[in-house]
Amino acid sequence: MSMSFSLVSCDDEFNEPSNISGGNTKPPVITSVNEAREDTPVTEGVLKNLYYIKGQNLGSVTSIQYNGVEAGFNPVYVTETLIISRIPEEAPYLSEINKLRVETLYGVAEYNFSLLAIEGFTEEIIDGKSVLIFAGGDFTNVTEASFVSGSEELGNLEERPANVLSASQAEVIVEVPDGVIQAFVYLITSSGASIRSESYGFNYPIFTDELIGWTLSGWDGEQGLSSEVALGSTSIKRSSLNYGGLTLFPGDDNETLVLADYSTFLIQIYPATSSTKRVNFALNDFTSPQYLLDLVPGEWNKIEIPISSIYPSGTAPDTITRIDFQMFAEDGDDPPYLYYLDQFGLIEYKNINV
């Protein structure tokens, strides 16, 4: 299954004189909605993705709605036969409407069109099989899944087809193929849509239910284990004074963390008090530029830290010998400060072109 793609140009359609609105008073007609990367027709779209709405008499468009939510549009990308439109992030993907609605000065056109989004996933064992349970929707038409790792550019792209055990509107269960260490999961629907999950697993795990070869310490606070989790059964709990820190050191027998082998840190953090909003992420005893994490209290924050955002090209150290999370409250954010850390590690490649 190949998912390579590139954006298809529609310049010719915008330059055709017949496509420029000029006195057309006919009602709009939608003939297809095409996914912009390959210009292929679909009847389901992914939130925040770009689509070509094709038809007739579209030039005087005044409103575009996905499941009742306004999408907005740029008049520069509107002709009589084409509108380039992005599905808004806030559009409801679990809906009884499942319609794209285009209104012009001279009428309304509707097109059957459902929406697709992944909220997250959990891992469980069902009938002796390791599975991922995806929450979100609309998963009704999910028929295929694939675990994808590596990249074509580096010659290590690997795609593992996976069994879809069940699919409903709000949930899909996928069996994890044997041998997967780290991968992004693609869900594919019979409606032509595909969507990619967050990373499953790590190429270099540091904490997933337990510390993996690393030790835990800190200053000006207390740390321990907790059942408040993003995934699995155990997280790290940290209560802290301001500027106090949680520190991780590699154990004596741990595999050396060679930074050049990886591209991105992945972390999930749950701030448990309203004043726990900022945590400083630092490497190698604060000898590198720090990375400030802006957090939303009361929910799990999924954080991706590209190594390139910490170290400019050519300045990264060879290895990582210490990792710190330092409380960094602003004036007015008074204690207590409390957060949980879960699912922490590194992946080799964040941006996979497949």
Describe the protein's architecture and organization.
The chain is mainly beta. It has three domains: 11-112, Immunoglobulin-like; 117-201, Immunoglobulin-like (Sandwich), CATH 2.60.40; 204-347, Sandwich (Jelly Rolls), CATH 2.60.120. Helix content is 3%, strand content 50%. The chain contains two helices and 26 strands. Strands 18, 19, 20, 21, 22, 23, 24, 25 and 26 form a nine-stranded antiparallel β-sheet that branches. The longest helix has 5 residues, at 11-15. It starts with 10 loop residues before the first helix and ends in a 7-residue tail after the last strand.
What key attributes describe this structure?
Jelly Rolls, five-stranded mixed beta sheet, 2 helices, Immunoglobulin-like, nine-stranded antiparallel beta sheet, 3% helix, single chain, 3 domains, mainly beta, 354 residues
Give me a quick take on this structure.
This protein is 3% helix and 50% strand. By secondary structure, the protein is mainly β. Mean pLDDT is 90; it is low at 1-7.
